[in-house]
Design a protein that fits this description.
This protein is an alpha/beta fold. The chain folds into two domains: 185 residues, 3-Layer(aba) Sandwich (Rossmann fold); 158 residues, Glycogen Phosphorylase B (Rossmann fold, 3-Layer(aba) Sandwich), CATH 3.40.50.2000. It has 14 helices and 13 strands. α3 links the parallel β4 and β5. α1 packs across α14. The model has no long low-confidence stretch (mean pLDDT 97). The chain binds ligand GMT. Ligand GMT binds next to α1.
Amino acid sequence: MLKIGIACFPTYGGSGAIATELGMYMARKGHEVHFISSQKPFRLKSGLKNVYFHPVKTKPYPVFSYPLYAFALASEMKEVAEKYKLDLFHVHYALPHTISAYLAQLISSRKPKIITTLHGTDIHLIGLDPGYFPLVKFGLEVSDGVTAVSRYLKRITEEKFCADCEIKLIPNFINPEYLKRKSVKREHKKVITHISNFRPIKRTLDVIKIFNIVRQKTNAHLLMAGDGPEKNKCIELARKLKLTRHITFLGNQKNITEIFSKSDIFILPSENESFGLTALEAMACEVPVIASNAGGLPEVIKNCITGYLLPVGDIKGMAKKAIELLEHPEKTKKMGALARKIAIKKYSIEKIGAEYERYYRSFF
Ligand code: GMT
């Protein structure tokens, strides 16, 4: 049995979701799992055997312009490592988690191994910023093990950060027991869905523009779940295009299974995605995906088989494919069924969880 400390972001987002599901999987396998984060991760169920949660408290102080989260996290990681005799830290998203783990290891009498899982923008966006680059690079060098969630992310990390780092590809996963299409009450006959954190990289305005074209040919409804900086711009654009009645902004949602169960198509027109976990989650619920041909998305979505991949910003092309799918429900259904089959075969939690477990054991 291993004693594992997991540091991750607790809020809505793929890296936190993966960290939590993986931690709960390890606990089911008999390992002792300690989540260390600013809040209880949103997917973490209460009362689980072998699972502990340690909140990180950042005390505000007038001299600090910003809360010193990375330091508070390091202190908590050190305490947990010593008190519970941790064997390893598994940190999700390099910033600031790897550096906090390194500090905790340095000041602790216990020396847990550090495994960093790279998720995306920690490498291809914010990690490249000169203000963070040296620290991310250092974090990769001091980690005992580094994993990346797609071939794309592994390649970019090697290219931009360290050519001779050993990076293990372990893709993201879904729990097919939890993520499966259910029969739900549908208020609309044809439904397109988008879920994200509404950051510019997600190109959420494209979703509205695509939907505007789709509406000219079909009576579809758009569900937009999630929240973030671009949401108000989307609401504004919907108003301008007189689409307000046809779009529901759902905000952050816990029950994505219910949303996918109401959906015919999932749209993810991102500028870049290291993996695109929501696309895989849609596939698990038999929803074909229309996405941009960027980053790791082509590793997840098989063009013309489980969805369609189009160039970033190809609003007309994405709309055309959406109309085609909405007008041919039989074809959409077939694609959806295949999507789930592939999602389970390649990305089930049992398969990928076991890969992580083997990876952990390789350090002992
Ligand atoms: O990197 C981010 O933007 C945040 C991160 C998250 O926490 O949601 O998203 C990334 O990690 C996900 C889980 O591995 C991937 O599915 C997303 O594709 C990836 N986001 C980007 O690369 C933009």
